[in-house]
Amino acid sequence: MPHMPDVPDSLAAFESQRAGLLRKISELSEFRPGSITATTGRCGNPGCHCHRPNDPGHGPHFRLTYKDDGKTVTESFVSPAARGKTEREIEEYRRWQQLSREFVEVNTRLCRLRPAEEQALTPAKKKLQKSSSRKSAGK
Question: What pTM does this model have?
Answer without folding.
Answer: 0.68
